[in-house]
Design goal:
The protein contains eleven helices and 13 strands. It has helices at 3-15, 18-25, 29-43, 59-76, 78-87, 106-116, 129-137, 174-178, 208-220, 234-242, 287-299, and strands at 48-50, 55-57, 91-97, 120-126, 143-146, 158-173, 184-185, 188-189, 198-201, 226-230, 248-251, 262-267, 273-281. A hairpin with a 2-residue loop joins strand 7 and strand 8.
Length: 303
């Protein structure tokens, strides 16, 4: 069965006359009759009741006509769909992101992309930076928003675009401030006053750059951090702080995550910064990814 046979069937169904149908199709009647007969034999169903004076659709042929017409209508749109897919106007984009990006660049970046390409289906997956890189290399996602590892360790098949650099702030239990356990001046916090307090931090295997920025900041201030808990989700870290389990250094955008019992404070002196960027496979030529990279490039305010 092919589309030509189906078009022939629809034409005969509309004309209910093989001669007129053949004239519309620009052919003679015998090959048209033979094509319809071959179609009926192939599907094992009589589509037309024929007499010497008339042609009529059988009950099965009458109902089948709607299905065939829908299929032909859909087939007629395929070339347009192919062109829109090639332009990236439709299709899919599989994007992963670290939990910190959910409070910084992810909403704005997705909003800009959806505004330009509303018909692209976006699949989102929250994952740590290390898992995103593994998933990228296996081809299961198009791109990821990560806290990048050192450039020298980034896989050669990947390309990285920095998008956002933000200061870290201290997230501390509010009860510790009220009880005097932490010394706070206004909305500023000096890490030197809490170097022995338990630190809640991302495990190094999940975000080595983030981990090293924080531990390096402690070392600059004369202490090795006392790591009390490790967690891979920012929401979990903030919950642990709310429970009085320790303090954390988090990106300043995380202040949008309000939680009872947690205070966000600026770090005194020169606070460390953390970077977030977009990573993708350099051999991925998906049009939807190409457009997303373009939107991200315009979004980025970094050199």
């Amino acid at each position: 069965m092919d589309l030509r046979q189906l078009r022939y069937f629809i034409t005969v169904a509309e004309e209910l006359h093989f001669g007129r149908a053949a004239e519309r199709l620009g052919m003679t009647q015998p090959p048209l009759s033979q094509t319809i007969q071959a179609l009926e034999e192939e599907i094992g169903v009589q589509l037309f009741a024929r007499t010497k004076r008339s042609v009529a659709l059988t009950p099965a042929g009458e109902q089948w006509r709607d299905h065939v017409q829908k299929l032909l209508d859909d087939a007629a749109t395929l070339s347009g769909i192919a062109r829109r897919l090639a332009r990236g106007a439709i299709g899919t984009l599989k994007l992963a992101f670290v939990s910190t990006a959910d409070y910084s660049l992810l909403p704005d970046l997705l909003g800009r992309y959806k505004n330009d390409y509303p018909d692209v289906e976006i699949t989102l997956q929250e994952a740590t930076s290390d898992l995103q890189i593994e998933t990228l290399l296996s081809g299961d996602i198009h791109a990821g928003l990560i806290i990048p590892p050192p450039q020298a360790t980034l896989h050669a098949s990947l390309t990285y675009l920095p998008l956002l650099r933000e200061k870290l702030v201290a997230a501390v239990p509010d009860e510790w401030i009220r009880s005097g356990r932490l010394a706070v001046s206004g909305d500023t916090f000096d890490i030197k006053s809490a170097l022995t307090e338990p630190l809640i931090i991302f495990p190094r295997r999940s975000a080595p750059a983030f981990h090293d920025v924080i531990t390096g900041f402690y070392l600059q201030n004369g202490a090795v951090p006392a790591i009390g808990q490790e967690a891979i989700q920012m929401q979990t870290i903030i919950s642990l702080i709310s429970a009085g389990m320790g303090i954390a250094l988090v990106p300043e955008s995380l202040q949008k995550l309000g939680r009872a019992g947690v205070r966000y404070l600026k770090l005194a002196d020169a606070p460390p910064c953390i970077e977030t960027g977009l990573v993708w496979r350099r051999d991925d030529l998906s049009p939807t990814l190409e457009h997303f990279i373009q939107v991200a490039s315009e979004f980025s305010g970094l050199p």
